[in-house]
Specification:
about 475 residues, mainly alpha, globular
């Protein structure tokens, strides 16, 4: 099925008269899931500074200034995160994502609550273990969300919905960094930040268990009008027989490889900044923890705002046929990586006396990255709605190796964290990776539904029948 076929199918299906449908409830819950998940994932970036503070705001707050494994603690989340995702994509495809998302968010939240306990009883090793377990469970998040978006989202809403859901992550960061900073700087202390986010995650798990659904056909209260509208522009209809995963076709698909390469570059740059901006603001710009956390969150707030400009514009260009889906993805991907790359190179040459300029460049570097939500990040669904969860599992798993490596690279660059030369290397390396991976994407990416989306099963069956084998 070509993109044109999907577009015609969607155009022939009347949009429901009610502006608010049950699909919007699913989208909002998924949006909340990314807010909470990223809050849990990123509050350690500020929390670790408070945990290692020699002079806490209240003497009763436990701190560990003797700890030496800050970068290891920050990267440990990704040790677990990379492991389950390919398997997670297969599991959610086979059994449905609802309950996997429910249970893994619950466990993720439970081990967030346990971080202060493990810190006091098992030291750095205990915190690292909690972070690894958090990562293992969050490994189910994006494969599940991608599968749900493939089932619930009509084509005319795809860029907007995917951007809305996924920019819950940056918004979660915007909330998490200052909230953690304010709590850590108060008399109630940093442990409260982990208790808060653990409680929010458990609360979300209960809501999703009550209100979430694997697909429109599995939701008992959806109207026939809304169901037909969703499935009219969606090639992954629930009534289709389950298709085997076309592993070889995926592995040799250049449009898919383009997504994977770009995802690697995005993760290197994004997580370098996510984990290290608080340290940069503290060690180079000399902000205290409260101001640091607020200013570190500002670029992610701008990213969230810009996503609401880029994503409707992307859908407008596609629906009005000004650009093809593939060209739209390439344009927005380039906006999301090339502009930040230029800002990062400039940032590497800014010194501590130019605080406003440094902050402005950080805002540009992170904020314009919002365009990737209408670029490669939604492109899995364009290529194969039926296998979107598996595709996201593959790219998100393997690309997150770079999320592990990026913070650790800082440890091997032979300069102190208080030396601006270190940060020049960090920012220029990230910029170079952004540029190279985006160029690869522009050359090889596509917006067409791939032949292996729904034909693989038939091809395999006919091949086996031709060989005289039983099924």
């Amino acid at each position: 099925m070509t993109v044109l076929d999907v577009e015609r199918s969607t155009e022939e299906t009347t949009k429901p008269k009610r502006w608010l449908g049950l699909r919007h409830v699913q989208f909002f819950l998924l949006f909340l899931s990314t807010i909470v998940a990223y809050g849990i994932r990123t509050n350690m970036s500020v929390g670790i500074i408070a945990m290692m503070e020699a002079d806490p705001p209240d003497p009763s707050i436990p701190t560990y200034p003797e700890w030496t494994e800050k970068e290891t603690i920050l990267s440990a989340f990704f040790w677990g995160y990379v492991i389950p995702q390919i398997g997670a994509g297969q599991l959610v495809k086979r059994f449905g994502p609802k309950w996997f998302l429910t249970v893994t968010m619950f466990i993720n939240s439970l081990f967030t609550i346990l971080i202060p306990v493990m810190a006091s009883s098992a030291g750095e090793g205990g915190v690292i273990a909690c972070r690894v377990i958090q990562g293992l469970n969050q490994g189910f998040l994006f494969p599940s969300i991608h599968m749900l978006l493939g089932k619930w989202t009509p084509l005319p809403e795809r860029s907007q919905v995917a951007s809305f859901v996924y920019t819950g992550g940056p918004l979660g960061t915007v909330i998490s960094l200052p909230v953690t900073g304010v709590i850590a700087n108060s008399s109630i202390g940093w442990p409260t930040a982990f208790y808060l986010y653990g409680g929010l995650g458990i609360g979300w798990s209960v809501l999703w268990a009550l209100l979430g659904a694997d697909s429109p056909t599995k939701h008992g209260r959806i109207s026939e009008e809304e169901r037909q509208y969703i499935e009219g522009g969606n090639t992954s209809g629930e009534e289709k027989k389950e298709l085997p995963t076309p592993w070889l076709s995926i592995a040799t698909s250049m449009p898919f490889i383009a997504i994977f390469v770009t995802h690697c570059g995005q993760n290197w740059g994004f997580w370098t900044l996510m984990t290290e901006i608080p340290s940069y603001m503290s060690d180079i710009m000399k902000y205290d923890i409260k101001d640091n956390s607020l200013l570190s969150a500002l670029p992610y707030f701008v990213l969230w705002i810009l996503s609401f400009i880029f994503s409707p514009l992307a859908d407008f260009l596609i629906v009005r046929h000004y650009l093809s889906i593939g060209n739209t993805r390439k344009v927005f991907n380039s906006i999301g990586l090339i502009i930040p790359a230029i800002a990062l190179v400039c940032l590497g040459f800014v010194d501590s006396s130019q605080k406003d300029l440094a902050l402005g460049l950080l805002v540009v570097a992170v904020g314009f990255n919002a365009a990737i939500f209408s670029g490669f990040n939604v492109n899995h669904i364009d290529l194969s709605p039926n296998h979107a969860g598996t595709l996201m599992g593959i790219t998100n798993s393997l690309s997150n190796v770079f999320s592990i490596i990026a913070p650790l690279v800082i440890k091997v660059i032979p300069y102190e964290v208080t030396d601006p030369i270190l940060w020049r290397y960090v920012f220029c390396i990230a910029a170079g990776i952004y540029v190279v991976t985006d160029l690869f994407y522009v050359i090889y990416a596509s917006g067409e539904v791939q032949p292996w989306n729904d034909e693989t099963g038939k091809k395999e069956e006919s091949s086996k029948e031709g060989e005289g084998k039983d099924h």
